[in-house]
Structure formats: C-alpha cells, structure tokens
UniProtKB/TrEMBL annotation:
<dbReference type="InterPro" id="IPR000836">
    <property type="entry name" value="PRTase_dom"/>
</dbReference>
<dbReference type="InterPro" id="IPR017932">
    <property type="entry name" value="GATase_2_dom"/>
</dbReference>
<keyword id="KW-0479">Metal-binding</keyword>
<dbReference type="GO" id="GO:0009113">
    <property type="term" value="P:purine nucleobase biosynthetic process"/>
</dbReference>
<keyword id="KW-0460">Magnesium</keyword>
<protein>
    <recommendedName>
        <fullName>Amidophosphoribosyltransferase</fullName>
        <ecNumber>2.4.2.14</ecNumber>
    </recommendedName>
</protein>
<dbReference type="InterPro" id="IPR035584">
    <property type="entry name" value="PurF_N"/>
</dbReference>
<feature type="binding site">
    <location>
        <position position="369"/>
    </location>
    <ligand>
        <name>Mg(2+)</name>
    </ligand>
</feature>
<feature type="domain" description="Glutamine amidotransferase type-2">
    <location>
        <begin position="15"/>
        <end position="240"/>
    </location>
</feature>
<feature type="binding site">
    <location>
        <position position="405"/>
    </location>
    <ligand>
        <name>[4Fe-4S] cluster</name>
    </ligand>
</feature>
<keyword id="KW-0408">Iron</keyword>
<dbReference type="InterPro" id="IPR005854">
    <property type="entry name" value="PurF"/>
</dbReference>
<keyword id="KW-0658">Purine biosynthesis</keyword>
<keyword id="KW-0411">Iron-sulfur</keyword>
<dbReference type="GO" id="GO:0000287">
    <property type="term" value="F:magnesium ion binding"/>
</dbReference>
<comment type="similarity">
    <text>In the C-terminal section; belongs to the purine/pyrimidine phosphoribosyltransferase family.</text>
</comment>
<dbReference type="GO" id="GO:0051539">
    <property type="term" value="F:4 iron, 4 sulfur cluster binding"/>
</dbReference>
Amino acid sequence: MSEFEKAVTGLGEECGVFGAYDVDGHDVAASVYYGLFALQHRGQESCGIAVTDTYGKRNVLSKKGLGHVDDVFDEEGLSELKGNLGVGHVRYSTAGATRVENAMPLVINYVKGTLAIAHNGNLVNAIELREELSQTGAIFQTTIDSEVIAYLIARERLHTPTAEEAVKRAMQKIKGAYALVVSSPRKMIGARDPFGLKPLCIGKRDNTYFLASESCAIAAVDGEFVRDVLPGEIVTITRKHGIQSDTSMVIDSEKQARCIFEYIYFARTDSTIDGVGVYHSRILAGKALAESYPVDADLVVGVPDSGLVAAKGYSEQSGIPYGMAFHKNSYVGRTFIKPKQSERVSCVKIKLNVIPEVVKGKRIVMVDDSIVRGTTCANIIKMLKKAGAKEVHVRISSPPFLHPCFFGTDVPSNEQLIAHTHTQEEIRQLIGADSLGYMEIEKLKDMVGDLKYCDACFTGKYPMEVPKEDISQAFEQN
C-alpha cells in the first residue's frame, strides 16, 4: 500500500512473500517477479528478489528497492538474477521505516553459507530479542524485526545439523505473527506461526515448487495449488526429497487464530486461504449485513475494491439491485504528493469518482470493508449526495475497530479510531450517513466456517500476550 493509499483509507496492509525452486536448474527470477506482481496489493512500499544457483557456486544475487514491482525490476535487471532458487518480497512497513535498507529479502552471509529470508508479520518480542542479540555481538543494519529472525536462524544454524532445524529453534524463541520463506544454499524452507495469523501456501509447476502468501500468486505463475502450510508447520523443499514436513510445532486447532481481516480486506478476491475462498467469505459478509440491517433502497454499491463483493452479497440477500457507482483511478502511484490529514477530501476525489447517472435520485446502500478514522467514508458520502443520491445507507463488512493490532495490520492507535471514542449513532452523524450498520461480531464466524480466527482489533481478545506499548514506534527508536 502506497503512502497515498494509506492516507486515503487510514488502514495499512501487510506484506507478501514468494519463493520458487526449480529443481531442474532453470532460472526462477521471472517467476518470482510475476508472483510478487500478484501480491502487490499486500505491500507497495518496497520489494526485492534474491536468487541462488544450487548447481553452481551458490552465491546469492539480489536486487531490491522502493516502490512497486515494476518500478524496481525491468527485463534487463531480471535477466541478471541468475539462479534456480529465489525468494521475493513486497513490503508494507508496520515495524521499521520506509527506506531501502529495510526492503526484503534480507541476505545474511555467515560461516555456513548464505541465507535469504522474506517475512510477513510482526513479532511481539522483537525488542527484547534484538537487545539480547546485540549483547552477544550482533550488529543490526535495519530497523525491522525480520532481521531478528534472520540472525536467530543464522546463529542456531551453527549448532544444528540442518537449516530447517535452525528455523525450528528460532521459532521456539520468536513470538507473534509470521510467514517465512527462507533459502539456504540448497533448500527452500517455509514456516508459519503456530496460530496461523499469516497465510502461506505451496504450489507446483512441473519441477518448480512455490511458496506464496496467497494462492492467487501461484495461479499467476501457472502453478497448481498443492495445499496450505499448516499453522506451526515447517516445510522443506529439496531437489532430492521434494516437499518434507515438520509438524512438531503445530498446536491444537482450537487455539489457532487466523487473521479475520485476510478474509474481510487484505487477501485478493480470487485467493483461497486455509480452504476458504475469499470471494465466498465476502459474499457471506454482505448477506449477513443485509440480514442484520435491512433498508428500503434502490441500489447497492460497493466502495472499490474490497467492498465490491460484500455489496454483491448484500444485493443478493436483500433483492436490491447491485450497481457500479464509482470509477477508481488505478494510476495513482507512489509518486503522488503525500497528503496531509487536511487534504483527504481532494485525495479521495483523485482516487474515486462518482458516476452521477448511476446514483442520481436514488436511495443508495454503500458497502465498505471498514471505518477507521471516518474521514474517507464521510467524503465519499458527500460525493454521492453531491452527485444526486437522495439517501446513503452505510454498511460495513467488519465490526468497529476498537483495539490496536500487534501482528502486522497497521491499525492506528486507539485515539485515532473513531469507534473508540464515539457511539455508532455519533459516527453516523459525523460521516453524514442516513443509517449505519456494522458487521455483528458473532456473525464473523459465518465467513470462515470452522476456522479459528483472531478478531482482537474488534474485541481486544488477543491470542497471546501483547506489549502495552506501540511496538512499531519502540522498535524504530532502538
């Protein structure tokens, strides 16, 4: 997500990881590039690719930079990344500033060889681990918690027979949310935190194996989805043995806690995570909203992009026609002047335009995924009414944000959350809606079936002990 997007929505996204290993020895940089392209929605601040040739000297070649995937890589740059094992990353910063040295993958050279690591998530004990490692001689080059993981793996590798065992020992020390893709000289390793907060899946195309944050990235490289990595599982992919699994850190399924916001907002609509289709879950969310908050209206519309499918679900359940009321400008890139809070009105108008003939004289149901500060929603309602909408009834496919997230979702601090300081009726008045309805907490489970999930940003019930301070700011000061 760009600084512009962040300012318009008020909500930050996560990161995306992708790995490719062609056991026949063919170069994989292009596949990693296209996989990252499919994950661009998860992070638009920086990206990178690191490759190694498992048949040659096993040197790691890498390139990373600020911006979108196509800003950083071109055909010539990709052709220079020779290697059959590659790790890629797209980043949205939740811990550590937006600077090129914080871009991933991180490449660590040590006595056993070279590791490249891509990480999606946030650690809740990163500060104490960083201080502990610093006391024993580690010199950190970045301000991201991913470097803590990389150092731990490298250090543990000195005392373990295999790289995957080093990853396992590092996992026993880190706490929080993570999906990891790691390349060692001859292996690609994937690991997922025991709660399953961050998604990770496996794919295959001929003799090339893939690891990806979302299944849409595997489809983008013409791969076949194999399965999701289990929460707590470590998978090791080698030329000799293919996919091997270590499930010794898998916890009881009742304690698992997948991020519910993957299904509401983060994941791409065509992805499937842990057996649940994102499109289907958003349709169900819209239907639940229609059941909870019916209204007499003429048209249901969704705010692009994540509100569109929920709006279709609302339409199907309510019988109110579904329409496209907005044109989204897809060409607002990272070079746009970073707006201030006072400039949000103009930002929304640059990002979205209302189609007047669609809404004029109509009572509109407007479906969106969340209200964070309320500014954006208020501006969109003003635009709809200025275009001639008679009424605007707002339906939100998530419950109100009341608590910060410590696991990689950039939910602002409590004082910036409009629902933390205002009642639902006060919010309705502030944004100028004719009615307002949020997803009911107890109906979230209908979106994901039997999967256990984390809804701490709505309920304050975290799956693990969390810091009392904003760890992203504390980490940046270290």
